From TrEMBL:
The name this protein goes by in its record: WW domain-containing protein
Keyword Chaperone: yes
Similarity comment text for this entry: Belongs to the SIMIBI class G3E GTPase family. ZNG1 subfamily.
Recorded GO CC terms: cytoplasm
Sequence ranges assigned to domain WW in this UniProt record: 388-422
Keyword Hydrolase tagged: yes
Family annotation (InterPro entries): CobW-likC_sf (IPR036627), CobW-like_C (IPR011629), CobW/HypB/UreG_nucleotide-bd (IPR003495), P-loop_NTPase (IPR027417), WW_dom (IPR001202), WW_dom_sf (IPR036020), Zinc-reg_GTPase_activator (IPR051316)
Pfam families xrefs: cobW, CobW_C, WW
Biased composition, class Basic residues, residue ranges: 275-284
GO MF annotations in UniProt: hydrolase activity; nucleotide binding
Keywords of this entry: Chaperone, Hydrolase, Nucleotide-binding
Amino acid sequence: MPFAAEQQRTKIPVTIITGFLGAGKTTLLNYLLKERGTKSIAVIENEFGEVNIDRELVADNLLEKEDLVSLENGCVCCSLRKDIVKAFAEIETRSKGRQKPIDAIIMETTGLADPAPVAFTFFANPWVASRFKLDSIMCVVDSRYLLQHLEDAKPEGTINEALQQIAFSDLILLNKIDLVSEEEKTQVLRAVKKINSTARLVQCQLNDPLQRPSVDMLLDINSFSINRALEVDPNFLNSGSESEEESQSTNPETSDSGRQACGPEGSGRNEKKERRPKRRRKKMHDLSNVSSVGIIARGPLDEYRFNMYMKDLLSEKARDIFRCKGVLCVHGYDNQKFVFQGVHETICYGPCDQAWKQDETRINQIVFIGRGLDKRSLIEGFRTCVWVPLPEGWEEFTDPKTKQSYYCNRKTGEKTWSRPAPIATAYVTSTHASTEQPSISKQRKIPRLD
Ligand SMILES: Nc1nc2c(ncn2[C@@H]2O[C@H](COP(=O)(O)OP(=O)(O)OP(=O)(O)O)[C@@H](O)[C@H]2O)c(=O)[nH]1
C-alpha cells in the first residue's frame, strides 16, 4: 500500500454530528454508542449552556467514563475552537491507558454551531491532520421546525445556522418524520435539496428503533469531501483564523485557533490579525441575541407547579425558546429520575432509564436556550416549582374527578388549589448570576443566586 494511503488508513475517523437545537443529535449519538458493536468510540460533546444536560444523558452509554470529553458553555465554532485540538489531545492521552485503542471519535456540536470552522481544524492543524481524519459531517434535521428556523431573520452579513449546517454536511438525516404530514415533508425535502443537492439524504425517526438508519450507514463511511466543502465555500481553506504559526503548530497545548473566532465578540483584534493580508469578508456567526439560562435547584420539584410553569412559559414564548432540557428530581417518586426535553412547544417529560444512585445529590438541572430570554423571570418561576413541606395545619387532598391536588386547612376550613407553602427555603442557582459559588456544584463553577 502506498505510504499516503497507509497513513490515511491508520488515522482515527471523526464524525461530526451537527443540526439545529433539539433536532435529535444526542438521540443519534446514544443510538450509535449503544449499537457500536466491538468498536471503541470516544465522544466530544459540546454544549452551548453551562449546565451540561447531554453529558448526563450520554454517560451511561460509554464503555468508560474517560471516553467523554466535554466542551462546555460555548460553541466549538466560536469561543471554543482552540479547545477542539486540546480535546483530541486529551482523547489520545487517555487512550494510551486503554487495552483497546479508540476506533472512532464522534463529536456532537451545539445546535448553534457552524460546522465549517470545525472541519477546517482537520486541514489547518498539522498535529490533528497527522492523526485524525474527518470521516463525515452528518446533519440531523428537525422536519417539524426546519422551515421556521430557515426563515429566521438574521442580521445582514451573518449566517443562518440551520442553513449552514445543512449546506456543509455530506449526510443529512431528515429526522422526526413522524411529526409532519406528507405534504410538509415534501416541503422540507425541497428546502433541504435546494440548500444541498449532493449530500446523501436519509429520512428517519431516530427515537424509533425500526426507523433508524443502520450504524454501517453512519460510521466510517469516508464521505467528507474537501472538494465539496470548497464548492459550498470557496474560501473554506482560508476560513480559519489561524495565523501561520498557529496553523503550523504541532503542539496541541499551544494551538490557539479560536482566538479570532467568528461572531462579534470573537472578531478580536490582536496584532497578529492586523498584520495579516486581507481576505474576502466572510459571513459572521452572530449569537448576540441568543443566550442560555441554566438553573440548578436543590430539593424535589412539585410536579403540578412545574407543569403549570412550563405551560405558561411556552404559551407565551415557545417561538423564542428554541430548546429547554433538564434532569429532574420530582417529589413523590422515590429514586426515579426524570428527563425533560423541549423543542419550542414540543415537550417530552418522562422517567429516565437510570434511577438516582444512593450517594447521588438530588438536584434539578435545567437549561433554556433561546432568543431574548428573561433570565430573572425564568429563575423566579422555577424557584416556585420546588416542593417544600406544607405549613402547620394544612393537608393535601386529591380531587377524585380531576386528579388534581388541593389543600385544606384543618383549623380554618380554608381550601385552595395552589400549594400554601412558603417557598423561602427553595434553593436555586443560576449560571448567569453574579454572586459567589455555593457548594452544590463546585466543579461547574456555577454562581449562587439567592
Ligand atoms: N417525535 C420525535 N421525537 C424525536 C425524534 N428524534 C428525537 N426526538 C426527541 O427530540 C428531543 C430532542 O432530541 P435530542 O437528541 O436531545 O436533540 P439534540 O439535537 O441533541 O438537542 P440539543 O443538543 O439540545 O441541540 C428529545 O425529546 C428526543 O426524544 C423523532 O424522530 N421523533
